Records
---
Amino acid sequence: VQWECINPKYKAKKKNYKNSGMVILNQCKVAIDFTASNGDPRNSCSLHYIHPYQPNEYLKALVAVGEICQDYDSDKMFPAFGFGARIPPEYTVSHDFAINFNEDNPECAGIQGVVEAYQSCLPKLQLYGPTNIAPIIQKVAKSASEETNTKEASQYFILLILTDGVITDMADTREAIVHASHLPMSVIIVGVGNADFSDMQMLDGDDGILRSPKGEPVLRDIVQFVPFRNFKHASPAALAKSVLAEVPNQVVDYYNGKGIKPKCSSEMYESSRTLAP
């Protein structure tokens, strides 16, 4: 899928203007909250409840939002991670484990692949805590940082985080987001359940500029927070509009700030031919 980059100034001045080029969203990564605050998966009140016939709250959010992001992922492969659980075989706490338990290849084929990996891993986990999301942001930021060192630097990363509420490493998360704001990536946080999401609103930056604990401001806004409860009965179009409300501008802001021109369709085609096996 090709993502148009629209220059508002050119669009206003040029009658036949279409776009300034295209960007490939090459990688959408998913991170799922497996902390104990979600409730015991064997309990029907749990957000992770394992129901034999119906999707739980996490699956509803994952499928609804994930299918939107899937449209902008060039290879439809989703590296999927979990955080806040004790994982086999030693059952130590991890905040960035592959939910398919394959750390060398955490990719899942499409959102359905993520769903299957989630359903397979959930019974093997011990939900624990705390709710730390800085490690997974740092993990994706590492990939985005490596992308900036490539010749073309046309790939943009999105991290989709599904969580049930209050995070416990706010200072580290703010630091990680400020660092990530310099890189080709955005973070979409989906709130699952009915918890207090006021901290997430702060990370979104809509009410003011997010700063690190040392006072350094974000270079650009890269976080979008979506409380899924507000869209459970809304149309897919309404959810898509909210999820992607800020991402296109975040993409354009990054490339404008770096002075990188989006590649045109023919350039991307030649590049894909070069990279093809």
---
Amino acid sequence: MTIKRTTKRDTILKGLMGEAYHRALMAFPDEDVVVGSRFASPDGVEALKALTEMIPRSGHKAVGEERAWGRRLARRFGVDSTYDEQSFVVASGGQSGFLDFESSKPEKISPDIVSLFKTVNAKKGGVLIVHGWTMAESLVKLGKHS
């Protein structure tokens, strides 16, 4: 999904994520939900800022269950053949469906987020699979239609 580079792109991203959370809320009203996506650059990770404990994250060594969720997402995205479960990086061919978003304030992107992308080769179609959880009570707020 590409978000056009306009002055309203942050609002559009927020709206799209609100709709995604609303759909998750309708499907799983009383459950915690894992949310994940593929990113070719650090800018798009902003979409997941509402999640609890994003994986991967700087200074955190992913445990077995976290790596298993990464593998499941890679398989679901059809990129498991070039996926590395330690780094959460898809080496190539991973851009057939990723969130393409360019931040209007790139200087505000956390250096910790930027460092996660040091081994992502976007020119070869590389991406980083990022996921995290939203608890049921948070999902009610995130998925609420105004």
